[in-house]
Every structure is written in structure tokens, then in C-alpha cells.
Amino acid sequence: MKNQEDSLAEITGIGTDEKPSGAFLPYPTSTLSPSIVPNDLTSFKSRGVSQVERDLQQKLVEIREQYVSAITHFNWNKLAYEADINFEPVVGQTYYLYEARGRNLLSMISPDQWFQKHLASLRLNYDRQFILEELGEGIEERELFGTTDEA
Q1: pLDDT of amino acid 2
Q2: Which end of the chain has a smaller Cβ tally under 10 Å, C or N?
Q3: Which portions of the sequence form the region Disordered (predicted)?
Q4: Cα–Cα distance, 127 to 55 (Å, whole number)
Q5: Confidence (pLDDT) at 6
Q6: Taking the model in full, what pTM does it have?
Q7: What confidence score (pLDDT) does residue 151 get?
Q8: pLDDT by residue (tens digit) across 17-59?
Q9: DSSP-derived pairing of the beta strands 103-107 and 94-100
């Protein structure tokens, strides 16, 4: 009984001086064989490029929105923590940010009970971050933070 390598060499001519049989090659070896015509891939490429561009544009829009949201959240927290606070805020409570006497002031007094310039209503959450609940009447974030929408 012959081993497997000897039988493989006999069939394909591998390991011998014989040329391998053309029947086992993945390409035609005769001029009588049908010609190889490459596929036209321009429509495949153009569809792929447009799909990738669309997907990446959408991702960029989402990343930009997340960035703007994070910067706005940071700015509100910075205003709240730099404001004058005469008490220790409690997690879960809503506080009111005012502009009074040229300074920002964080207070427990609601805007309908106090007639200072109300900037925003903020709630302190469990990780000690202030979350914007309501913007004061007539207050523009862009003017307050000195930012523009061009980023």
C-alpha cells in the first residue's frame, strides 16, 4: 500500500519532474479555453464609497452633538460650582442659579419668590453633577458661555 504523499504525487505530478495536469489548475492553460473577462466593479465601488461616506458623515454628526452636549454640561457645572453657595446642596434637589450684584449665586429660592435675574434651574444628581432642568427666561446659552455653533 502506498502512502498518501506518493498517491498525491502521482495524481498531480507534485514532487516529480512532470508538469501538473491542467485540469486541476484554477485558471485556463490553453488558448482554446474561454477568455477571462474581469468584472466591471465601478458600480460596486461607487455604491460602497457613497455608503461609507454617508455612514461616516452620520457618525461625525453624532460625535459633534455629543461633544457640544458635553461642553454645555461642563459649562453649567462650572457656573454652578463657581457661584456663591451659602449652603451644602443635597443630591436630588433642584437649585436656582441667579445673577445678583454682578456675581452668580446658587439658591434654594425659586424664581417666582425672588426677583433676581434667573439664569437656570439645576438639579444635583448622585455623582455631584448639576443637570440643567430649565433655562431662565430670556437667557441664551451661547451668550452666557460665549460660544458659537461653529465647531
Answers
A1: 54
A2: N
A3: 1-22
A4: 34
A5: 57
A6: 0.64
A7: 47
A8: 666 666 777 777 777 877 777 888 888 888 889 999 999 999 9
A9: antiparallel
Question: Rounded to an integer, what is the distance from CA 103 to the centroid of its chain?
Answer: 37
Rounded to whole angstroms, what are the CA distances from 79 to 10, 16, 72, 112, 116? 84, 84, 11, 21, 16
Among 128, 75, 79, 143, residue whose Cα is nearest residue 105:
79
What's the rounded Cα separation, in Å, for the pair 139 and 72? 14
- Residue 118: is it exposed, middle or buried by C-beta count within 10 angstroms (0-12/13-18/19+)? buried
Q: In the chain, which residues have pLDDT < 70?
A: 1-22, 147-151
Could you tell me which residues are beta bridge partners of residue 106? Answer: 97
Q: What is the 3-state secondary structure (H, E, C) of the chain?
A: CCCHHHHHHHHHCCCCCCCCCHHHCCCCCCCCCCCCCCCCCHHHHHHHHHHHHHHHHHHHHHHHHHHHHHHHHHHHHHHHHHCECCCCCCCCCEEEEEEECCEEEEECCCCCCCCCEEEEEEEECCCCCEEEEEECCCCCHHHHHCCCCCC
